[in-house]
């Protein structure tokens, strides 16, 4: 008679232990492996942390650097411009950087010229780049050219346009930086750029573009892209603007 109550008590305890074991197993697995719905909810942020796609550069700026002689051990800085396309690639904007238009432009020019030198593979010094970036200037390409390249471009322009007479030897010397004639030099450089732009768009196999591809025998180089791609970016340009300069008449 006593065995029946003991059997009932045994079944109750056994059922209780089964229930507690089941709940304990749920707690353990819920900590180590989230339910399916929760795993799907957390998958998104993990994928985002893998990194965004590379940003597409919109209308990249070109930093144009004019020196006296790219072949010299220590080239002297003569001019710096920033250029970018406008009007869907139909035009190009030019902004003068050196000589500076600021009220303290002479001092700015001195600081920038003092920080200018070329390191290996014709790269700009870190000090020079820091000064420009501290002025919130950015660029993607760098175009280097010197007085020899300007002289050759001058000859090509004369051949393309028989009426082109402005940049004789005296005119070319007016593109060299001088403290006394800072803004005149800037104006002369702008006129030179405008004269080059007057030949745009360049037809295929044009001598000016061909010589640029050849690097004017080391007197014109492009960094950040290939010369062919850089010239190709100008294929649709047919006018140039100088938003911050009122160009004076040619002498």
**Overall domain count:** 2
CATH topology group of the largest domain = Aminopeptidase
Major sheet attributes = 6 strands, mixed
CATH class of the largest domain: Alpha Beta
From the spread of the alpha carbons, the general shape counts as globular
- Average predicted local confidence, pLDDT: 77
CATH structural architecture of the largest domain = 3-Layer(aba) Sandwich
Which strand order do you get reading across the main beta sheet?
A: 7-6-1-2-3-8
Low-confidence stretches: 6-11, 16-20, 22-56
Approximately what portion of the residues adopt beta-strand conformation?
15-25%
Helix content: 40-55%
Following the backbone from N to C, one meets helices and strands in this order, namely HHEEEHEEHEHHHHEHE
**From the structure provided, what is the oligomeric state, counting identical versus distinct chains?**
single chain
Task: Tell me briefly what this model is.
The protein has nine helices and eight strands.
Describe the protein.
The protein contains 9 helices and 8 strands. The relative contact order is 0.13. It has helices at residues 3-32, 36-48, 105-114, 126-134, 147-160, 169-173, 182-197, 207-213, 227-232; strands spanning 62-67, 77-86, 91-98, 118-119, 123-124, 141-146, 220-223, 239-241. The chain is globular and about 40 Å long. It has 2 domains: 3-48; 62-241, Aminopeptidase (3-Layer(aba) Sandwich), CATH 3.40.630. Residues 6-11, 16-20 and 22-56 have low confidence and may be disordered. It has a 6-stranded mixed β-sheet with strand order 7-6-1-2-3-8. Strands 4-5 form a two-stranded antiparallel ribbon. It has 251 residues and is α/β, with parallel strands linked by helices.
């Amino acid at each position: 008679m006593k065995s029946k109550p003991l059997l009932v008590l045994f079944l109750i305890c056994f059922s209780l232990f089964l229930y507690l074991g089941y709940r304990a197993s749920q707690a353990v697995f819920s900590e180590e492996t989230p339910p399916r719905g929760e795993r799907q909810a957390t998958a998104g942020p993990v994928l985002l942390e893998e990194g965004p796609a590379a940003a597409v550069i919109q209308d990249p700026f070109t930093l144009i650097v004019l020196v006296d002689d790219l072949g010299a051990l220590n080239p002297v800085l003569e001019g710096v411009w920033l250029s970018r396309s406008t009007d869907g690639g139909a035009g190009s904007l030019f902004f003068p950087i050196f000589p500076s238009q600021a009220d303290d432009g002479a001092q700015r020019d001195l600081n920038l010229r003092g920080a200018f030198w070329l390191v290996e593979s014709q790269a700009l010094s870190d000090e020079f780049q820091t000064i420009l970036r501290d002025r919130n200037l950015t660029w993607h390409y760098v175009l280097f050219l010197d007085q020899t390249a300007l002289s050759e471009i001058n000859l090509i322009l004369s051949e393309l346009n028989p009426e082109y007479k402005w940049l004789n030897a005296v005119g070319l010397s007016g593109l060299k930086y001088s403290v006394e004639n800072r803004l005149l030099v800037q104006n002369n450089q702008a006129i030179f750029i405008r004269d080059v732009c007057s030949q745009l768009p360049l037809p295929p196999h044009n001598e000016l573009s061909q010589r640029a591809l050849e690097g004017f025998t080391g007197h014109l180089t492009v960094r950040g892209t290939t010369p062919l791609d850089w010239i190709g970016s100008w294929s649709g340009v047919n006018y140039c603007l100088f938003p911050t300069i009122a160009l004076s008449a040619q002498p």
